[in-house]
Write a structure and sequence with these properties.
Layout (H helix, E strand, L loop, with lengths): L23 E5 L3 H12 L3 E5 L3 H8 L10 H8 L3 E4 L2 H6 L3 E4 L14 H11 L7 E4 L7 H13 L5 E4 L9 H6 L4 E4 L3 H10 L1 H5 L4 E4 L1 H32 L3 H9 L20 H14 L5 H15 L1 H9 L6 E5 L14 H11 L3 E5 L4 H7 L4 E3 L2 H5 L4 E4 L4 H4 L3 H7 L4 E4 L6 H6 L3 E3 L8 H11 L4 H18 L7
Parallel strand pairs: 1-2, 1-4, 2-3, 4-5, 5-6, 7-8, 9-10, 9-12, 10-11, 12-13, 13-14
Helix pairs in contact: 1-3, 5-6, 10-12, 10-13, 10-21, 12-13, 12-22, 13-22, 14-21
Length: about 500
């Protein structure tokens, strides 16, 4: 191993820190956020030690195996060389660190409130080893007030004077996390003292030099910013999906509408693609946490609550949408193209594809799936799932082919070959990837989302099943509000 490893030149505009500016950094938690944060900080020249209690995960990283798929991460870690280490010794990592990031998971409880037990265990472990002047940065997504509670606990346990606790929310998208870290729209740091601000300014100086905006706020403002950002994006997805439902009723094409609306600079085109609904590890968890926080503080976020209910109903209705077009599915072969909740990841947490898989099976369909990266993750959730690496193999003898994850592999399908492999001729595209005329020319019947391809006799039924404006939607929304209100009367926003 070279003493001075070559840094990956991901972008020439991102300078690297020199030896005089290099900082000693510890990252607690080697999940998605922690490992990406550590690798990127090492790539710009800092010395980073990653720590986790999961020995198997640490062993995998040390052996050069990434426990999940993120494009470019394996290469970035390899290129970091001895600037980046992985281990289980928290004390050793924290004692040497000037900045300690906490990037442990905060999974949701049943009422939507984040579970902060692991985070506070990490905080207490840091308190046992941190020297005065160490800056502890909470990277995990946490409710407002978590930083203040962490500060109280760490100071009480360590016996030291004031310890700097900062909030630095992550805005990483699975599938493009490295670019999002090194070339973000902004860096948000929430601080309550100059020590934390100065340390984080120094840490991120290479990115700021490359003209990345750095916004300094109070700690609570930074904590709430992450929830507000994800809440806004989730609402955009729910909104365009409901416009898609309306388009099916009136015979319009949502793609043209989304394009026209997205050209408005006040709105923008991002997250205005109609589809099967949002999933993954962030939007579902963060919107529920934000709704719970609002209710617990006596300030209901009814728009967020409506988006949650709308998205839940949309995801649960995917199989019904297919039956409304194809009829009885019992005994019929369905090729399901996509398992991950989005392309360029192997993450199947709250994936609409798995919800659709469950619905298809309940309807009696025989499902054969394909996903370039998420097959193993999906099989851990559904052990008897039949998966293929080749989409054409999945389509063999299929009565219906369904595209639900917009991988490039599926966007570039040879539709004639798909038709030749199938026993039937129905292609259901939940991602609106193809031109209807092109699909028809290949001998396939095409049903997409929010377009004229949804036949008049089925569009109304499908739209009712999605429940964008009917009694079912209101019932789902009202039930969520009732549950959130009941939960908020029993629990505080922090443990």
């Amino acid at each position: 191993m070279n003493p001075e490893p070559t840094l990956v030149p991901l972008h020439p505009r991102v300078p690297k820190v020199g030896p005089a500016d290099r900082m000693q950094v510890a990252v607690v938690g080697t999940g998605y956020v922690g490992s990406v944060t550590a690798a990127c900080l090492a790539s710009i020249g800092h010395q980073v030690a990653c720590v986790d209690v999961d020995r198997n995960r640490i062993g995998a990283f040390c052996a050069g195996r990434i426990p999940f798929y993120e494009p470019g991460l394996e290469e970035l870690i390899a290129a970091a060389g001895n600037r980046l280490s992985f281990g289980t010794d928290l004390r050793n990592a924290v004692e040497r660190a000037q900045v300690v990031f906490v990037a442990v998971g905060t999974p949701p409880r049943e009422n939507g409130q984040p579970e902060l037990r692991d985070l506070f265990e990490a905080i207490e472990g840091i308190a046992d080893s941190a020297a005065a002047g160490t800056v502890v940065v909470i990277k995990s997504t946490v409710p407002v007030g978590t930083g203040a509670e962490a500060e109280r606990r760490i100071c009480e346990r360590s016996g030291l004077g004031r310890i700097s606790i900062a909030s630095n929310p992550e805005f990483l998208r699975e599938g493009s996390a490295i670019s999002d870290f090194l070339h973000p729209d902004r860096i948000v740091i929430g601080v309550e003292d100059a020590t934390a601000e100065n340390a984080l300014r120094r840490l991120y100086r290479p990115l700021v030099t490359a003209r990345v905006p750095l916004l300094v706020t109070g700690r609570m403002e930074a904590e709430l910013t992450k929830y507000a950002a994800n809440g806004m994006l989730a609402m955009k997805i729910a909104f365009i999906n409901e416009i898609a439902n309306l388009c099916e009723r009136v015979g319009a094409d949502v793609r043209d509408i989304a394009r026209a609306v997205g050209m408005d600079s006040r709105i923008g085109s991002a997250f205005l693609q109609a589809g099967p609904g949002y999933g993954g590890s962030c939007f579902p968890k963060d919107t529920r946490a934000l709704a719970h926080l609002g209710r617990s503080k006596g300030s209901a976020l009814t728009l967020i609550e409506a988006a949650i209910a709308s998205n839940c109903h949309r995801v649960e209705s995917l199989a019904g949408r297919i039956t409304s077009v194809a009829g009885n599915l019992r005994g019929r072969q369905v090729a399901l193209l996509g398992l991950a909740f989005k392309p360029n990841t192997d993450d199947v947490r709250e994936s609409p594809a798995l919800a659709l898989l469950t619905g298809l099976r309940k309807s009696g369909a025989v499902v054969r799936a394909c996903d370039p990266k998420a097959a193993a993750s999906a099989k851990r959730a559904v052990p008897d799932l039949v998966c293929f690496a080749d989409p054409y193999e999945a389509c063999k003898r299929a009565d219906i082919t369904v595209i639900i994850t917009d991988w490039e592999l599926f966007r570039s399908l040879d539709l004639r070959r798909v038709r030749d492999a199938m026993a039937g001729d129905l292609l259901v595209d939940f991602r609106n990837q193809f031109d209807p005329a092109e699909v028809a020319a290949k001998g396939l019947r095409y049903v997409s989302v929010g377009s004229r391809t949804a036949r008049a006799d089925s569009a109304g039924a499908a739209s009712r099943q999605f429940g964008s404006s009917g009694p079912a939607w209101r019932e789902a929304r009202d039930g969520l509000v009732t549950d959130l209100h009941a939960a908020s009367t029993k629990t505080a926003s922090l443990p």
